[in-house]
Amino acid sequence: MAAETGIRHAPQPALMRVIGLNKTYVQRRPFSRKEFVLGACKDVTLELPRRRVTALVGESGSGKSSLATCLALLQQPDSGEIWFEEDQVSAWTAEQLASLRPKIQMVFQDSAGALNPRFSAAQIIEEPLEIQRRASKPELRLRALALMEEVGLSADCSKRLPLTLSGGQRQRLAIARAIALKPELLILDESLSSLDLVIQSEILRLLVDLQSRHNLTYLLISHDLSLVGEIADFVAVMHAGRIVEHGPREKVFGAPRHGCTRELLAFARSLESDFQAATEVQA
Amino acid sequence: MRFLARRLLHAGFLLAAVSVLCFLFTDLAPGSFFDGMKLNPQISPETVAALKAQYGVGKPLPLRYVLWVKSVFTGEWGFSFAYDSPVRELLLPRARNTLLLTGTATALAWLIAVPLGVWMAYRPGRWDDRLGMGATSLLLSVPELALVLALLCFAVRTHAFPVGGMTSANDEQLGLLARCQDLLTHMAIPAITLVLANLPLLVRHVRSSMIEVLDAPFIHAARGHGMAPARVLIGYALPAAANPLISLFGFSLGGLLGGSLLVEAVTGWPGLGPLLLEATMSRDLYIVVGAVMVSTFFMVGGNLIADALLIAFDPRVRTD
Amino acid sequence: MPGPWKIRTALGVLLLLHLAILFAGFVAPYAPASQNRGLPFVPPMRLHFRDAQGHLRLRPSVCQPELNAGTFYEYSELCTTEYPVQFFVSGPEYKIAAVLSSHTHLFGVEIPAHIFLLGSDNYGRDLFSRILYGGQISLAAGLLATAISLSLGTLLGAVSGFYGKWIDESFMRFAELFVVLPWLYFLLAVRAFLPLNINPMRAFFLVVAVIGTIGWARPARLVRGIVLSAKTRKYVLASRGFGASDGYILRRHVLPHTYGVLLTQAALLVPQYVIAEVTLSFFGLGLSEPLPSWGNLLAALQQYNVLVSYWWMFAPALALVVFSFGYLLVADELQQRLQSASL
After folding, report:
1. Cβ C191–B280 below 8 Å, yes or no?
2. Chain A partners of C233 at a C-beta cutoff of 8 Å?
């Protein structure tokens, strides 16, 4: 590690760096020789600049979620390096990783599945605080209510079960839970995909707001380019497990180099023009 | 085919494991098991010596187990201390008697349960269905012990059926037809008890499977086409409900040897059950192990047959 | 009867039965071992609500049986003196929860009269009292064995489902062994290799342990299935992201899903295990005299003359039937609720 050698580099602009990450899934039936190998991530190299929004786009099955779970330290990659701040965390033991966990949090796509249906909203937010012992018993509720207010949930939602909340409210709840431990990196895996457009923009506004308030770094995973276009600073395109294009948003959108990127852009633009054409007809 | 071969191998391992488990329990007994046998005046010292040599009596467990397995392959299946004879000669006739009883009772139970279950499923919620469900619930709650005692009492008081044993005393003097009749009257009480004990669960399962199937769109379509209800039920619904019923049938088959112990013991039917009881009382090790193994064999065999039938009847299973 | 009233009646009757058995000392007029050699096989006594003049009374009374001359066990009622049934009487001493002792019984009659609500057995012991005390033993056996099966099953099933891979594979094979065993045969086999004549309390615990241990496989499989599906939930993954330990995840996220199934299994297993104990005791392989159990109470029916002539000796079977039926209704209801909850 850089610190050990006594050489102090200037603080890197990137909060997290991934070098040559590989992740494959092997399925094997018990007592059978046949194996199914699924290459989810192949030689992925990526940087997440500090306090910026990096978007990861690609079609379904391109390996985005696998990469996300590896970055969130919820899965071990097969090979490659992951650097956080100035430490190579991919070489860390489980105990060392435990101290890192609060700094990297994830918001999942399916909010209904990601929240325990038997817990009340307040209990859901209290859970990370309880596990990490950040507050005493009586304080837990207060902290949870404060977080709810911060994400725009009214206090009378606190006793309700997640399934009785609307999709937008659930996603706010998931976000509140994710920022409870004051993370530095927030990974959002298709978190806006299942919401309708009005709610999407509301949540986007919330995310932008939270970012400036808490100095968060975002990794925003989506297949929806128009969404990405609104808040992303950097864009990485993933195709069949590889990063095929990576750079600032203007560069990737303005002058795409890879065929896949061009396809995605073209599709998004055609939708846009169809929409414009439809509205013109109406007008 | 390969699937079946795998299942056969699996069944073999299962049986072996059960036999090991059985033998392990002999070591649970505090005090030496075989000392008691030495003191038994019925067993001559020569027999004891022969047993020691042949079965490793008094020697450590692994040796005894291996010698027992050897005796299984030579056809002896162990040796009974109380009866002074190889276990096989004792087990087989008793097993045959048990199978006679349970086979008849199981066949009867299925013959009644399937039409009854189908009938009840056809009209769920109506008074005859509710009556049937209530009756099955009540019957399920009556333990076999109470059933057999009550039926025995009834039989004795009304002199309707002979009580006890499989044959009458003057058995040899009767002709073939009379002997059959004698057997049947002796079998009546235990068989009726077994039928009554197993019927409710069978009826419930048939009914629930049929209800699930009758809800399916293809049944509604058939009915919509104007097909006669009987044809819909028997031709379309019953085969579709076959899968869980086949598994249940395998389970019934498997329980043929193990499910009638109580009834046999109380009514005096000379089957495997009373033999096991006696052996338990006199701690006749090899009979106990032999009886457990034989009935486990049936259990495993029943499951295998059910698997084979499933493969034969349901094309979807074959792709596994 | 429709819906909630069916289940409420079932629960009510079950509760009453359990309470009566729990407070057997109070409800039963006599100690289980107290004999009256002069009154063997007395039929159940009739409660008279009319007095000698034919007037209706609120308090019932009993007449004493008198042995008919020249017969063995035939009685007729001698109503010259009527003994009114008194409530909250003082009687033989008994212990509550093995600590407090008391003399008060729910009902009784003046000495030297007897009140045999369900008749007496061959030693003149009151069957009603013996059924209540016997119920304590049989019920305790069933409940304890159920607790053992469910605890073992939950522990093994949860560990197997949660940690997966080779632990799970070997567990499934092991469980299959127990599912395939003919349980009654195996129970007898195990019983065979325990000493036949042991101290009754030790016998009780041994029998309970054996019954409970044999039945662990089915609940274990059910728990394993639930744990397997619960651990793939995203909120479990999120919990790991917060740094939760395996124990925390099991305790707060996974195991709560098993409660419904465990309760239903309990309702199904308790009567099964009570019947297992009754069967063993019936054959003299479970609890034996002088400890009463429904099993050895029914064992008296193995004698021809008892089976045929003294119908009240079937009473423990009736208690068993009511008990099983109540639990069956509860189990059915629980299963229905479980199914509709998971949809």
Report:
1. yes
2. 113, 116
Whole-number pLDDT of residue B107: 94
CA C245 to chain A, closest CA, distance in angstroms equals 9
Separation of alpha carbons A179 and A149, rounded Å:
13
Between the two ends of chain B, the Cα-to-Cα distance in Å is 11
C218: closest CA of chain A, how far (Å): 23
> Distance from first CA to last CA of chain C, Å, rounded?
26
* Helical spans, DSSP H, in C69-182: 127-163, 165-180
Query: Is-contact A48 A185, C-beta < 8 A?
Result: yes
Give the C-alpha separation, C58 to C51, whole Å. Answer: 10
Between chains, do A113 and C242 touch, taking CB under 8 Å as contact? no
**B266 near C CB under 8 A:** yes
pLDDT digits (tens, 9 = 90+) for C5-15: 878 888 888 99
Which residues in chain A are contacts of C164 at CB distance < 8 A?
Answer: none
Asked if pLDDT for residue B129 goes beyond 50, the answer is: yes
The one-letter amino acid code at C65 reads P
Domains and CATH numbers, chain B: 88-145+199-319 (1.10.3720.10)
Q: Cα–Cα distance between B195 and B108 in angstroms, integer?
A: 7
What's the CA gap between B66 and B69, in Å, rounded?
A: 5
Is the minimum CB–CB distance between B140 and chain C shorter than 8 Å? Answer: yes
pLDDT tops 50 at residue A4: no
Contact C157/C224 with Cβ under 8 angstroms? yes
Q: Which of C274, C299, C305, C291 is nearest to C211 (CA)?
A: C274
The answer to whether the CB atoms of C177 and B140 lie below 8 A apart is no
Q: How far apart are CA C275 and CA A11, in angstroms?
A: 74
* Residue of B208, B296, B284, B304 whose CA lies nearest to B255: B296
- C chain contacts of residue B257, beta-carbon cutoff 8 Å: 182
**A137-164 tens-digit pLDDT:** 888 889 899 999 999 888 888 888 988 9
The pLDDT-based confidence of B320 (bands split at 50, 70, 90) is: very low
Pairing assessment for the beta strands A104-107 and A185-189 based on DSSP bridges: parallel
Name the β-bridge partners of A108.
none
* Predicted TM-score (pTM) of this structure: 0.83
**CB count in 10 Å sphere of residue B124:** 15
Which residues of chain C make contact with A171, given a CB cutoff of 8 A?
none
B276 to chain C, any CB pair closer than 8 A? The answer is yes
Contact between B55 and B67 (Cβ < 8 Å)? yes
Range scoring the smallest mean pLDDT among A86-100, A120-134, C263-277: A86-100
CB pair distance less than 8 Å for C241 and A74: yes
DSSP 8-state code for residue B317: G
Question: In this structure, how many other beta carbons lie within 10 angstroms of the beta carbon of residue C61?
Answer: 22
List of residues 6+ apart from C184 with CB closer than 8 A? B258, B261, B262, C276, C279
CA dist A260 and A239 (Å) reads 7
Residue A197: count of CB within 10 angstroms of its CB: 10
For residues C38 and B139, the model is more confident at B139
Contact B33 C193 (CB under 8 A): yes
Residue B207 CB neighbour total at 10 angstroms:
24
Q: What strands lie across the sheet with A234-239, from one edge to the other?
A: A104-107, A185-189, A217-222, A53-57, A234-239, A242-248
Percent of chain B with pLDDT over 90: 12
Sign of the dihedral through C-alpha C189, C190, C195, C198: negative
- The structural domains of chain A, ordered by start, are 12-112+183-282 (3.40.50.300)
In angstroms, the separation between the Cα of residue B115 and the nearest Cα of chain C is: 23
